[in-house]
Structure formats: C-alpha cells, structure tokens
Write a structure and sequence with these properties.
Layout lengths: L4 E5 L11 E11 L37 E7 L2 E9 L1 E6 L4 E5 L3 E5 L4 E6 L9 E11 L10 E5 L6 E5 L5 E8 L25 E7 L4 E4 L7 E8 L2 E4 L2 E4 L2 E6 L4 E5 L4 E8 L7 E3 L2 E3 L2 H14 L20 E3 L5 E2 L3
Antiparallel strand pairs: 1-18, 2-9, 3-8, 4-7, 4-9, 5-6, 5-8, 6-23, 7-10, 11-12, 12-13, 13-20, 14-19, 15-18, 15-20, 16-17, 16-19, 21-22, 23-24
C-alpha cells in the first residue's frame, strides 16, 4: 500500500500552499512591554521602519511606524482568513468596519472587487510582555466571484467548533475548525456567501490541531481530488501515516485517505489547509489576484482611480484604544462582542 505522504517540505516564510489557497503566513512575535502609545517599549534602532521583517529580538514591526502591523493596503480577487491565537489585532477597512480581536478569534474578509484594510497589533500591556501569534491565510475566489462586493465576518473564539478526543491511553487531541465539518465538533461555521468555501463540494477546511505528548489521532479522509497540507509548526517528531517527520515541517497528504498521526514526546501543533482546487489561471501582482495580466492592470488602474471607495479613517494605521475588550463594528453599524 502506498504512503499517504506525498511530500515533506520545510516551513519558510510564507508557507507553501496549493490551490485553492494562495498564501499562508505564521506570525509568532515576542513583543516586549508597551510604551503607553501601543508601540514597543524598546529601541527601534537598527530596524528598517516601514519594512521591518527582521525578527530582531524575536519580533518585527512589519510596515508599522509606531505600532507594529500592516497599515492601510488594498486587496482584490481573494479572501483573507486571520486567526489570532495570542495577543490582539486591530482591524479597520474601507467598508467602514472595525474590530479588535484575538485570543482564538478568527476574521474572514472577502476582498472581492476591492477593499482596503489595515491590521495593527497594539501592545496594550505596559507591565508585561505582549506576545502575538497568528495565521493569515489567503483563499482564492473563482473567476465568477472575483468582483463581488467586499464582505466582513467575525468568528469569536467561543463560536469556533471544537472537538476533543482521547486515545486509548487518555492522551488528548484538540481540533478547532474555522472552516469545514468534522464529525463530533458540532455544526460547522458558515463562510461568507461568495467564498469558494461556501460552494457545494469545495471541501475547504481550515483546522488547528493540538496533540498531547504521545497522543494518537486519525485525520479523517476528505474528498478525492482535494489538496491537503498539514503544517506542523510546534513540536518534535511525529509519525504521519507511518512516516517519521521532524517538526517544524509541512506535509502534503493524499486527501482521500485517513491518516494516523502518532505524536512524539513533545506537544505538537498543526494547521491543516484543505480544499478542492478551483483550477483556473492565477495572475498575481502583490495584493491583487486575478485570472489574467489584463485584469491585474485593470485592478491597478481601478485602485489608482477610486482607491476602492476611499479610506474613511483619520489615520492609515488606526488602533482602537487602550482597553483590551474585543469587539466588532460592522459596515451597517451593528456592533458585537464575544459572548
């Protein structure tokens, strides 16, 4: 019988993905105490401010000038799914939505025909460090939905389905499902209406998996024809379908086979991305993902001309105050907070 393991890949930055996914970045930043203005209480000397991906002292400013993060920038033709595992992210966009989320929350943003958003990482604590850990995944849109209106969705940590299983020795595996159904985890979340994940048979799954030392768990089979990557970002050795893999590493698996995961002596964590390929041409230029170079040129020209509706905020890197409460204000003015 052939192995379910197709390839084992190193984890760089960003992580290699497969159709229908375009990109996956893992940010794990050991930010220091805040300076009272939501920036780091540390010298910024030696950093290329505005373009700092240095990981100096275990953290980066990214494109932030004072607060770390990504000030206002455009997207067209795909979706972003952002899962903040530790710390907080402040979101603002050209639809008029804003949010502070983290501690396991997920945000799903359909860029469609064009959106501008910012993602900043406010360092609220002045008496302790401010660690941040998040994934950002780019999910492609099919050609028919490339130009749909932008759409903002929040999934609070308590809403995300979760399944805890124990093996024969009582060792736990915990799976959280931002997208896709898993038996025993409860009803799956509803992706945005124009997402590829909302299309029947797309088989899109975005799961995080945490395995206790020595735990055994079987990853269930998916549809034939889907692509599946398992990104082991924390841990030591794990046996995947009988093959020893040293983490950190990415493993491309046959999607239509159940795969036994046997963890080693350290707790291990994984992100799984899975889906049926869209199977269309991809043309990408920075934050624009279309089907042809002509459409890319149109996106550039449209953004120069319209700014995708303009930026309704006073600052290109808005942060939402010094209190840690998470919230979302939707484009229609509706406000929500986690239960």
């Amino acid at each position: 019988m052939s192995s379910p393991v197709l390839r084992v890949l190193p984890l760089g930055f960003p992580w290699e993905t497969a159709d229908p996914f375009l990109f996956c970045a893992y940010h794990d930043d050991a930010y220091p105490r805040g300076d009272g203005r939501m920036g780091p209480q540390a010298s910024l000397a030696g950093r290329d401010i505005g373009q700092d991906f240095s990981r100096k002292d275990g953290w980066s400013m990214y494109h932030g000038q004072r607060v770390p993060g990504f000030p206002a920038h455009p997207h067209r033709g795909f979706e972003t799914v952002t899962v903040v595992r530790k710390g907080l992210a402040d979101h603002a966009d050209s639809l008029g939505a804003r949010a502070r989320f983290g501690e396991g929350d997920a945000q799903w943003l359909t860029a469609g025909g064009g959106i501008v958003h910012s993602e900043m990482f406010p360092l609220l604590r002045e008496d302790a460090d401010n660690p941040l850990e998040l994934f950002q995944v780019w999910l492609n849109l099919p050609a028919r939905n490339k130009m749909v209106p932008g759409y903002f969705t929040m999934f609070w940590a308590g809403q995300i389905p979760r399944r805890v299983t124990q093996d024969e020795a009582g060792r736990e595996t915990v799976v959280r499902t931002v997208a896709g159904a898993l038996e025993g985890a409860g009803a799956p979340l509803s992706p945005p209406p124009h997402s590829w994940a909302a299309q029947p048979g797309s088989d899109v799954a975005i799961w995080t998996i945490r395995m206790a030392p020595g735990a055994r768990w079987t990853l269930p089979a998916a549809q034939a024809g889907s692509r599946r990557h398992l990104y082991g970002f924390k841990g030591g050795e794990v046996r995947t379908g009988g093959q020893a893999v040293q983490l950190p590493a990415a493993v491309e698996l046959r999607a239509d086979e159940a795969v036994l995961l046997e963890n080693g002596e350290a707790e291990s964590e994984f992100l799984m991305l899975q889906g049926r390929p869209i199977g269309e041409p991809v043309a990408q230029y920075g934050p624009f993902v279309m089907n042809s170079q002509a459409e890319i040129m149109q996106a550039i020209n449209d953004y120069r001309r319209t700014q995708f509706g303009g930026w309704p905020w006073d600052d290109d890197a808005p942060v939402h105050g010094g209190q840690p409460q998470r919230f979302a204000r939707h484009p229609d003015g509706r406000e929500e907070t986690p239960a």
